[in-house]
Amino acid sequence: MLATHKHKLKIRRTDSVDDLNEVINLIRVLFVCLGNICRSPMAEAVFRDYVNKEGLGDKFFIDSAGLGGWHIGEGPHHGTRKILKKYNISGEGLIARKIEADDLDKFDYIIAMDNDNLSGIQRLRKEHPKAYVAKLMDFVPDADENNVPDPYYTGNFEQVYHLVTMGCRALLEKIKAEHGL
């Protein structure tokens, strides 16, 4: 099931047409924060958990990335790992990477954690990017917060988890409605 593992969106010459069609037909979602060790991997894991619990894992490709490259190749921050474990959500396969301009064409949805992340993504934008770009909390109309604060600085992983779960649930409902799932 593709939604249970982190994959690169690269097609090799040896891939069959069926493999290519499988990747093309997936709904591709990318979560983005500053360093890809706290918020965006948490959102990736939570969203994947929701998707899989609804039996939709074969319809999604879910990933996360950071605007900066400081943590490339690292796993999530210990606070993120601890909160995912507390709520029995798998963090398997979460490895930090940096967002690339090509991601704007490889993904259908690119979801930023805050205004600064959104601005950074918009600086990468091409003339007509394929991806719909928004902040996670944009999907929660009555939320007290419009940004997901960075727990790397605040230390409040519980608050971030609460916001991420609200945002991911609302995002999944939007995507299901748009795609008739």
Q: Brief overview, please?
A:
This protein is of the alpha/beta class.
What does this structure look like?
- Belongs to the low molecular weight phosphotyrosine protein phosphatase family.
- This protein has helices spanning 17-24, 39-53, 78-86, 103-106, 115-124, 151-154, 157-179; strands at 27-33, 60-66, 109-112, 132-135.
- Helix 2 packs across helix 7 (157-179).
- A four-stranded parallel sheet has the order 2-1-3-4.
- The chain has 181 residues and is of the alpha/beta class.
- It is built from seven helices and four strands; from the N terminus they run H-E-H-E-H-H-E-H-E-H-H.
- It is globular, with a radius of gyration of 15 Å.
- The protein has one domain: Response regulator (Rossmann fold), CATH 3.40.50.2300.
- The protein is 40% helix and 12% strand.
List keywords for this structure.
181 residues, LMW_PTPase, disordered N terminus, Ptyr_pPase, 40% helix, alpha/beta, EC 3.1.3.48, Rossmann fold
